[in-house]
Amino acid sequence: MLRTMLSWLPRRKLCLIADDSAAIRKAARSILKELHFHTAEAENGLDVLAQCRRSRPDAILLDHSMPHLDGMGVMEALRLYQDGPPPKIIFCTADRDPRHIARAIGAGAHEYLIKPFDRAILTAKFEQLGLTNLNAGRS
């Protein structure tokens, strides 16, 4: 009976926070926890790919500039071996050039954030992508 009741509750989504800056990961983690997300972290592009194979996140907050493989390379690699629904990718960059942002969207990003970002902007991007469920319980 309890299992049946629990199955009606919304599943908490997983967001992989991919950034080589520990400060950015910490800030994003704090905001995403308030939005009732489970979070995982990666500090380089190769770790992002390994974690995606293991845990299949619902969303990736993906930094453009990371060691070993940048965000564009990560998106390209995800397209090559993706099985099942792809994660929603929110591309993060400090570059405000519209051509750079257009390249990221063309490469597979669903949304983008200009760094530094704040709680309101990050929340709005996740809401635009239909990723938030503010009524989900915390665990």
| Helix content range | 40-55%
The poorly predicted ranges are: 135-139
For the record, the CATH class is Alpha Beta
Mean pLDDT: 88
End-to-end separation in angstroms reads 20 Å
Oligomer: single chain
Helix and strand sequence: HEHEHEHEHEH
Q: Provide the gyration radius in Å.
A: 15 Å
Count the helices. How many?
6
Architecture (CATH level 2) name? 3-Layer(aba) Sandwich
Number of strands: 5
Largest pleated sheet: 5 strands, parallel
CATH topology: Rossmann fold
Shape estimate: globular
Structure description:
This protein has helices at residues 2-7, 22-34, 45-55, 71-81, 98-107, 119-128, and strands spanning 14-18, 38-42, 59-63, 88-93, 111-114. With 139 residues, it is an alpha/beta fold. It has a single domain (18-128), classed as Response regulator (Rossmann fold). It has a 5-stranded parallel sheet with strand order 2-1-3-4-5, with helices on both faces. Helix 3 runs parallel beside helix 4. It is globular.
Features:
139 residues; alpha/beta; Rossmann fold; 5-stranded parallel sheet; 6 helices; disordered C terminus
What topology emerges from the helices and strands here?
Layout: H1 2-7, E1 14-18, H2 22-34, E2 38-42, H3 45-55, E3 59-63, H4 71-81, E4 88-93, H5 98-107, E5 111-114, H6 119-128
Parallel strand pairs: 1-2, 1-3, 3-4, 4-5
Helix pairs in contact: 3-4
